[in-house]
Design brief:
The complex is a heterodimer of chains A (637) and B (253). With 637 residues, chain A is an alpha+beta fold. Chain A contains 17 helices and 19 strands. The chains are: A alpha+beta (637), B alpha+beta (253). At the A-B interface, helix 3, helix 5, helix 6, helix 11 and helix 12 of A face helix 1, helix 2 and helix 3 of B.
Chain lengths: 637, 253
């Protein structure tokens, strides 16, 4: 039933051959097609700008007040590309292999190869757009290293790479707005997907200022709405990040793949109070020069400066001498947790490890370190009150990225014809663990260099609507349902706030379905989620009205969807009786405590289909075939 | 353990652009000094909601100082008194127990109030649409290392490109000028060889749009630089003015 549409032929020729066989829409006909893009992060903005350049009519929606504020803006460390400017042995094949291995052999070979292949063009294009990447004195581009790689292939703009790439994509988008090819709808939230005869034909939105619920029709719909890390409440994601768009699409028939593949980022500022609203990431780039350690003796509460070198355990360097502090994220996180669980954690709560720059400062000088990480050090000091030039940073893992997402085929089309999914919102390229600096690469690959080709193939076989479909019953019905849900939230008039429910759900998921999972805990979570959901609908308090800016209402709608999504998330984690990448089931580990895959039973993509009747979702399996790499136990030792 | 604060907040409440708006006074108790300013507002909002009142609307998103969504005038200063800091990165350890804090939205003709502390900054998007880009089409670029760019130029360009578009420069300026925002974008692009090609039309178009949006003129107060959370230099305004002189289509006076 699941057709991934992976082209035949040798891995290295698949994309080139596929492009040659994709159908084209002639330039004069492109303007007859209307495309909707939801989300304006790297994937959404780059797709919208490029499709408009090609001549399609594009409508763009985002919940922020400006497309420039989407959460891609917060990505710090960099973007990978197999340029081999560093002359250190990089190649498309190596980036491909590192990504497949980093993802613990749970991603599609063909997708990952294509990603590595187009990585070159992304850097070229971004430079042409004016992205001020770091350069050497020669005037040529500089690189740094990231986790899971032994080459330096990461391009960066100080600690603000995501910001600079997004401003590039945003400026391209605004250029197309000025030329009349794109219509932007900021402060507008997609609350449902509309299908006609099973084909995606538009969306229902709510204007966040006026509260007006509206229909928008199109010949194709693109979702680029990001991930669902904030299902944990506390995460490194922005406050508005949510899963509503992908969850609504799922309920309209789009399969959701591998939701249990979540990434917990090792280097974040630790939690310090109940009031805390979000967690702040400290870029993985810091692990180039920072050394991770804890005191060798458990419950050693001395000031770090008092702990002698011999009394310190540089546990990543000790356990993984080859990759050292630059092991992939899942491994670094799990090891930090282990250290804290065994009483070696530091700080007031004992839930932190040190990330120490003393050696790097001695070696390179404070100035060099400040040039590389100045803004991150400042941010750390603002939040924690400690100066990392003088005292080691304290860090702890936090939810950061979700590899799972809507299932898409090689053309990035979901199981609903006409619905395409890009960037973090899809599941396609990172398997069970994403390597650092690869999210920016994937978002821009999807938007600039893949969807512009593949959507043409779909549209070439679709007659443009040529009329306004929004008067069709499917739109009227979906609009009615959205209006009803909004009134139901406002009418509950209970005693608890939406945030309160979100925190309760988040804590449950963090405890039972976070960095380490086991069957008993997952079953408890599955029991408790429906009870929280039921109480939510009876006891949530959403003040204000639906006819003006109402941030409580926005929040409540997103929490309501998370309360449904969470169940599938846990169900997927429970069904996958193996450990791989970020999905660590305590029952399945090697004697050294590493993730133990079961390739004989779980070498597949788990794609879940929603059931209208309210019955349990149905699992579809897309087998993963590895033709170019050998499946091995990942080793970074 | 951490110190706790009791505070009096004088907060601007305004229901829509047509409402006159007024200050309301609220008390918040037991505020942990490690909280961010926005987390303090969260505490207030959770309390208001439980009491059946409408919470205070304020823009915010990333809460790590980069998205540019948040911002309010705190005790007369855009983003508060701490230099180089967005409101979300201002922590309560910088306030005193029993202090009265006055909190207002950005006030400028170019930023009409939507509700409480939320303002409409779409004028900034329209200024960017007027020319704040390099018109390179996807697929047309040469190899990224084909054109070397002097490290000093890139560093200067990056200093300007760090702008987060929050609007504090406008809020801090007695003339509600947007010249730091516009100057930063012009500098970012013109300092790179890729951005020089269109520089003659870019500056004129952007300045023209800036005037159309109702932003004022620069009178060298330097308040914008002082309020800028990314400490962007006023020298970018000088560069913009210089570029404007050579601009092909300066707006008519």
């Amino acid at each position: 039933m699941l057709d991934s549409k992976i082209p035949s032929g040798p891995l290295k020729e698949k994309w080139a051959n596929h492009k040659l066989h994709l159908k084209l829409v002639n330039p004069a006909n492109k303007r007859k097609y209307q495309v909707i893009v939801v989300g304006t992060g790297l994937a959404g903005s780059s797709a919208a700008a490029t499709l408009a350049e090609l001549g399609y009519r594009v409508k763009v929606f985002c919940i922020q007040d400006s497309p420039r504020r989407a959460h891609s803006i917060a990505a710090q460390g960099g973007i990978n590309a197999a340029k081999n400017y560093a002359n250190d042995g990089d190649s498309i094949d190596r980036l491909f292999y590192d990504t497949i291995k980093g993802g613990d052999f749970r991603a599609r070979e063909a997708n990952v190869y294509r990603l590595a292949e187009v990585s070159h063009a992304i850097i070229d294009h971004c430079v042409a757009q004016g992205v001020p990447f770091a350069r050497e004195y020669s005037g040529y581009l500089d690189n740094r290293s990231f986790g899971g790689a032994q080459v330096s292939r990461t391009f960066y703009a100080r600690g603000q790479t995501g910001q600079q790439l997004l401003l590039g994509a945003y400026s391209a988008l605004m250029k197309e707005v000025s030329r009349g090819n794109v219509e932007i709808h900021p402060r507008t939230e997609m609350l449902d997907l509309v299908t006609i005869d099973g084909v995606a034909k538009g969306i229902i939105t709510r204007d966040l200022i006026s509260g007006k619920v509206e229909s928008h029709a199109a010949d194709a719909v693109i979702l680029a709405t990001g991930g669902y890390s904030s299902v944990f409440y506390l995460s490194t994601n922005a406050k508005a990040c949510n899963a509503t768009a992908i969850w609504r699409a799922h309920k309209r028939g789009a399969f959701l793949a591998n939701p249990c593949f979540t990434q917990i980022h090792p280097t974040c500022i630790p939690v310090h109070g109940d009031y805390q609203s979000k967690l702040t990431l400290m870029s993985e780039g810091l692990r180039n020069d920072g050394r991770v350690w804890v005191p060798k003796n458990a419950n050693d509460k001395r000031d770090p400066s008092k702990v002698q070198i011999a009394e310190r355990d540089y546990f990543l360097e000790r356990k993984y001498p080859t990759f050292g502090n630059l092991v992939p994220r899942d491994i670094a996180s799990r090891n930090a947790k282990e250290m804290c669980d065994s009483g070696h954690g530091v700080g007031e709560t004992g839930m932190a490890v040190y990330l120490d720059f003393a050696d790097a400062i001695k070696r390179l000088g404070k100035e060099k370190i400040s040039e590389r990480y100045g803004n991150l050090f400042e941010m750390y000091e603002k939040i924690s009150g400690d100066n990392p030039y003088e005292k080691p940073m304290m860090i702890y893992p936090a939810p950061h990225y979700t590899m799972g997402g809507l299932w898409v085929d090689y053309n990035l089309m979901s199981t609903i014809p006409g619905l395409f999914v890009l960037g973090e919102a899809n599941f396609s390229d990172h398997g069970a663990n994403r390597l650092g600096a690869s999210a920016l690469m994937q978002g821009l690959a999807d938007g600039y260099f893949i969807i512009p080709y593949t959507i043409g193939d779909y549209l070439a076989q679709t007659t443009p609507a040529g009329m306004d479909l929004t008067s069709f019953p499917a739109f009227r019905e979906a609009e009615g349902q959205v209006v009803q849900k909004v009134s139901r939230l406002l009418a509950a008039k209970g005693k608890r706030t939406a945030d309160d429910f979100h925190k309760q759900l988040g804590k449950l998921l963090w405890d039972k379905c976070g960095m380490a999972r086991n069957e008993a805990g997952l079953r408890q979570a599955l029991n408790q989620i429906p009870a929280i959901r039921q109480e939510f609908w009876e006891n949530v308090n959403v003040p204000g009205s639906g006819e003006d800016l109402n941030q409580s209402l926005e929040k409540a709608g997103r929490v309501a969807d998370y309360l449904e999504f969470a169940e599938l998330f846990v169900m997927d984690a429970l069904h996958r009786n193996e450990s791989c990448g970020g999905h660590f089931r305590e029952e399945f580990q090697t004697p050294e405590g590493e993730a133990k895959r079961d390739d004989s039973k779980f070498c597949y993509v788990a794609a879940w289909q929603h059931q209208e009747s309210g019955a349990e979702p149905v699992l579809h399996k897309e087998p993963l075939k590895f033709e170019s790499v050998n499946l091995t136990q990942r080793s970074y030792k | 353990m951490d110190k706790k604060l009791n505070l009096k907040l004088m907060l601007w409440r305004q229901n829509g652009a047509k409402d006159k708006g007024k200050f309301e006074t609220y008390k918040v108790k037991d505020i942990d000094v490690s909280m961010s300013f926005l987390e303090m507002l969260d505490v207030l909002n959770e309390t208001l909601t439980r009491e059946g009142q409408e919470p205070v609307a304020f823009d915010h998103d990333c809460r790590e100082g980069i998205c540019g969504a948040c911002g309010a005038v705190v005790n007369g200063k855009a983003h508060g008194k701490l230099k180089g800091t967005t409101l979300c990165q201002l922590h309560m350890r910088h306030f005193e127990n029993n202090e009265t804090i006055v909190i207002e939205p950005w006030r400028a003709k170019g930023f009409p109030v939507i509700k409480d502390l939320v303002v409409d900054r779409s004028s900034f998007d329209r200024i960017i649409a007027a020319g704040g880009y390099i018109s390179a089409k996807t697929g047309s670029a040469p190899d990224a290392n084909a054109i070397p760019v002097a490290k000093e130029s890139v560093e200067q360009s990056m200093d300007a490109a760090a702008c987060i578009g929050c609007g504090a420069c406008v809020a801090a300026c007695p003339n509600a000028a947007a010249m730091l925002f516009v100057g930063a974008k012009i500098s970012h692009l013109v300092l790179l060889p890729q951005g020089k090609v269109e520089s003659k039309t870019r500056t004129g178009n952007m300045v023209h749009q800036m005037d159309k949006e109702g932003f004022g003129n620069c009178s060298n107060e330097y308040e914008c630089e002082a309020a800028c959370p990314k400490s962007i230099s006023v020298s970018n305004i000088a560069l913009m003015n210089r570029e404007f002189m050579f601009s092909k289509n300066p707006p008519k006076p």
